Amino acid sequence: MESVPGIDPAVPPTGPGCVECTEAEGWWFHLRRCAECGHIGCCDSSPGQHASAHEQATGHPVIRSYEPGEDWFYSYPEEAVFEGPPLAPPEARPASQPAPGPAGRVPANWMDLLH
User: Fold this and answer.
1) Handedness of CA 16, 21, 23, 24 (dihedral sign)
2) How confident is the model over 83-106, as pLDDT tens digits?
3) Is residue 94 part of a domain?
4) Does residue 96 form part of some domain?
5) Which domain range does residue 53 map to?
6) Which residue stretches does the UniProt record annotate as biased composition, category Pro residues (predicted)?
7) Would you say residue 100 lies in a domain?
8) Distances, alpha carbon 6 to alpha carbons 59, 74, 105, 111, 112, in Å
9) Which residues of 8-38 are buried (b: 16+ CB within 10 A; e: fewer)?
10) Residue 65 lies in a domain
């Protein structure tokens, strides 16, 4: 597959969960991976919306789902989902980690807190 701007297939993810939520001891609904630098952020339905905040702060234009069984990419500039190349492993959060997650930090009323 040819090179796609905003995607570096060799860069590993930053960890098993949203960087900012982990630092703040928060929680997330679903996870997204920056296809350029590997930053793991939470989706726009999550309270923190850290994946979109990362794109706005860095200009990195493409994310990939970081959920087990999902391999779609999303281009912020084009507002479009597309297929892309395999990325450095792991390609998803640990299957043992629930969504929402992480275990033990999700409030009982989490559905009321989604965007």
Assistant:
1) negative
2) 999 999 999 999 999 999 999 999
3) no
4) no
5) 1-87
6) 86-101
7) no
8) 9, 11, 32, 32, 34
9) beebebbebbbbbbbeeebbbbbbbbbbbeb
10) yes
Residues 22, 44: Cα–Cα separation, whole Å: 16
Query: Could you report the per-residue pLDDT of 25-73, keeping only the tens digit for each?
Result: 999 999 999 999 999 999 999 999 999 999 999 999 999 999 999 999 9
Please report, as a single letter, which amino acid is at residue 49.
Answer: Q
**Total structural domains within the chain:** 1
- How far is Cα of residue 107 from the mean position of the Cα atoms in its chain? 20
How far is 5 from 102, CA to CA, in rounded Å?
A: 32
Question: What are the structure tokens assigned to 20, written together?
Answer: 């900012």
